[in-house]
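Friendly challenge for the regulars: who can give me the structure tokens for this chain first? No prize, just bragging rights.
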Amino acid sequence: MKAVFIDSNTDFINAVAENLGLPEGNTTTLSKDVAAAKDVRTLAESIVIGYKDAISSQAYSELLFFINLDLVLNESYKPFLGVELLTWLRIKGIMSHCVLYSFCDASTIAGKDRQNLILFSKGTTLIQLPYDFSQLKSKIVNLSTEIANNNNLESYLKASFNLGAFRHREANWWGMKQTLDVHALTDMKSIDDALPTPNYDRTSVSKELKSLNNAVAAYLHRLDTKHFWKYRQECALRLKDTRTKRDQAKGHADAKNGEAERIKAESTQAIEAFQAELDLLTAELTNPPDKSSDVYTLQARQVRVSEIQEKIGTLRELIEVANSEARSASLDADQLNKSVKDMEESFWNVERESLGIEARQPNKCNIVLIDDQAKSGWKCVFGEVLRPRHIVDVFDGLVIDRNAEDDEKVEKVFNASVSSIDRLLNGSVPLLVFLDLRLFDEVGRVAPSKLTGLQLLKRLRKKYPALHIMVISASNKREVFEEVIRSGADAYWEKEGLDQHFDFTSSVDSYNRLILLVNRLSGQEYKQLREFTQFASGLRQVAYEHPNVWWIHSTDDLAETLLDAANMYRAFLHSSHLRYGANVGSDAFVLSGLINKVCGVYENVHPDYDYEAETWGNFLNRKHDYYAKKLKRARDEFSHAGYRVNGYSPTATFSQAIRTVEEYLSMADNRPVHTPPDVLST
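First reply, four minutes later:
Bragging rights claimed.
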């Protein structure tokens, strides 16, 4: 056992070592490390580096640390700095027993700061000076065996540190860290891969982890994720066990095959000998060599023939059994070999599926990022995880007067956002806008409608009805989510905040949710929503540019009807596609209502219809409006009463209805010279 003294007072250290009766070779003094350290963290790091072998081998009982509770570092005094050092050492992996000494008593130290409660954790002894250290001489060996453990330490750290007192800034760096941690795991292809190290470059994560409070939070989170590493070790053992069984099965199969070959060779040789004797006896029975042969001799030959035939049958059965056992052993070996190969080749996919990590890659897209923390790392995180073709940071180069009114700041960000959006709006891949909810570090409880991100969302939605906008926030409050969706957001991604202290499964869920939302927003259904919304919102412009269009009299009604349908479709995608409160089995019902809404545009373009004078069918025949007839038929067939009939597909019919309405309203007049194709048939 070796005693390690962390104190700048060498005379005191020598006196304590002498009182403890410690041999000179069993004592290490870190007074030079204390003198050279800039702060507690760097001192802890130098100690951890010096004893990394003991940490890696978990030889904690071989070390006993003595720490001056009133350390002075860099000529700067801070009360009870030794407690902070103890905390750093613990979260960096040193679980050896620590003896701390001070002239203050335990109640005074504990009352000074809640973080000092760690003094009462397992593997720690507090001594009030003055003290006769010779009293420890008989106890020192036992003390070294009383080491700290994670479960006990976790309880004291949670009580000591106010992990709930974090909001916007901590949510940002912690969300970045957890997203990158999970993303690093997706690069693992095989169980034999080393655990990856997340890349925190170009983010604020590394800097934030230098704070003790943040480092404690990260340590506690690592305890939460321990089940993942344990699971991975179990998988490694499972694969090792399967490989061993495979090798054993292969050896068994080889032995069985060898035995089968031996039995076959020996049996074949015996069968050949028996067969020769049998042939001779059969010939003698058929043509007796001596007519004077008595009956007994003939009977004896017949008995011998039966015996030989039975033995030949037995030998052939023996060969078949040996071959069957060899085939079975080979089959078992092949099956185990296939299992090993599958585990080796696709282990990470299996493990990833068990953990719930999405195997697929995010769709190609462009991203406009509107976030005051983009430079601190979120732009790099989204670039690393989503790999967009282009990602634009709206705040890059934008000078904001933090003392200005919110309206003025939002106006400036809005103008910069419009400039970025317009540059990428008509690109070859979908454009997504990622919008932070708190753009200017709003602190405290703010009404959702007052949040700067929400104010900007409303302005962007008004200018770009078809643009796909995902709001990003660490808030998990229901009223915030509802206000965001009501204000026109297509999606809401809840990034992980330090105060929420997600477990590993939740971190994976958050990562998967980001991938899913991006893939859905850049997928076919949202492409249809985007194009339909663009068409509906552009009707007024069409009427302005073409004042003689035949449906000009119903421009406002048409635009309103179709924009309502587009908003209904967005709400439908929220529930069915993005899994915001989806009701299983309701999709067809909702789509039938959308079909009814979209196909009903013929009522808008024919305000002269008199329902008391004639039916819609007769009216549309008289008008020669064949497209309207097709729309009416689809509307009738997909009414709420009949939306499940005849195997019709509501999804396909809704898409066809949109295309038909767009073609219908794009015609120069509504009198085509021939009946249009049955675009709504299934």
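The radius of gyration is 40 Å. The longest strand covers residues 63-68. Your move, everyone else.
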